[in-house]
Design a protein that fits this description.
Elements: E1 16-20, H1 24-36, E2 46-50
Parallel strand pairs: 1-2
Bound molecules: flavin-adenine dinucleotide.
Flavin-adenine dinucleotide (FAD) is lined by residues 20-26, 50-52.
Protein name: Amine oxidase domain-containing protein
Amino acid sequence: MDSSILSDLSPLAGKKIMVVGAGIAGLTFDVSLRRSWTEESGDFPEVLHYVAHR
Ligand SMILES: Cc1cc2nc3c(=O)[nH]c(=O)nc-3n(C[C@H](O)[C@H](O)[C@H](O)COP(=O)(O)OP(=O)(O)OC[C@H]3O[C@@H](n4cnc5c(N)ncnc54)[C@H](O)[C@@H]3O)c2cc1C
């Protein structure tokens, strides 16, 4: 059995996440991810927000 299924390590650990937009929805995702992250989750992912300038 894959032991990672039973661990607290997040599948997002150490990854790079691209979020389109930095409004309510985009920032809520970022903040909620940070608040739910624990030491056991692994390395916090790099979160980048892409925002279009008008
Ligand atoms: C004047 C005003 C007052 C408001 N007051 C209230 C209030 O008092 N209370 C309340 O609950 N709601 C209020 N709202 C509504 C609230 O702002 C929206 O419901 C909320 O911001 C929607 O969140 P969202 O994440 O969907 O979009 P947004 O917060 O608008 O975020 C969208 C993001 O995507 C980016 N984006 C857009 N197009 C692209 C693209 N093509 N590529 C990359 N990035 C892109 C934008 O730059 C922005 O960062 C108000 C809205 C306005 C306009």
